[in-house]
Give the backbone structure.
Amino acid sequence: MLSAALTAAACLLLPFGALAAWAAYGIADTGRYVTTMAPLSSDPAVRGAVADTVGAGIMHELAERRGLPPSAAPYVHSAVRSFTRTEAFRAVWDAGNRASHEAVLKALRERHDGPVTVDLAPITAQVRHELTDGNIPLAGSIPVRHARLAVLEPDELRRLREGFRTLEVAGVWLPVSAGVLAVAGIAVAVRRRRAVTATALGTAVGGALLGVALLVGRATILADLPSGVSRPAAAAVYDALTTTLRHVAWGLFALGLLVAAATWLTRRRAVARPLPRRGAPPPGTPASAPTSAPSRGASTSAASTSAVVSPAASTSAISTPAATSPAAAGPAAPTPPGTRSANPSLQRRVVD
């Protein structure tokens, strides 16, 4: 019972430990975060969402300050879409992700109660440069200001700060606790092979549950998006952020099944192997020829052969049955005087 309880606890803690470790060391690391988000600069849905957002902002600024007519909107959006296909956009994308991630981490680890903002001036300057090179009218008059884009509101920041501190602690202790409980469950088990199989199958189930949780979380997040947010772009971001966690889930599932199958196969081989019999000679010893008692037919044949060879002996044996087994007949009775023995040999022996 103790082994089963320890194994069940380890298998339950394993998916939560993987999730906590991913959040604490995958998402919370700026370098890894930027590397994870970098491929999204080539995703069509993400590029379209960025082009629409940046183009709408540029048109709003130009319409208010310079009186740009709405008919220029297609040209502005086309220029911004062209910019999203360049290497400069990829560089700006990485710089923007790095700046926003550092700002969020700094706010989570410090006592900062205001909104988390990111400076958009580098992106605006690059877009103005691209529009000017494309001979877009009034492109050079686009103002480059250090506009601050709010990434997190104060209420959201406070909730995330509490959860982030919990994840930092759980990301270390949950995986370690799961490993210790699994080893302890195997160590105290009476049948350790079965305990290893149960732990492996529990690991596979935990990996499968983690994968299902990722799918449910994806559907829930996409269903709760505001109306102005692009669902394909949000789905691409979610998939990019959870790539490592999906690989971990599939790895746990495959590892558990592999260990369980290996344990089952080794058990089958151990059961199929014949055990040596008690008193059997060791392998390599030449076997001696078996000795058996002569059969009844062989003794009868030998007796008949002797009868054919010496008929006189058989005749004397038939005429004097007592002589064939003197020990069974006992001592012979003395012959009365004046009588002759039927056996001449006995008579000579008496005379002598």
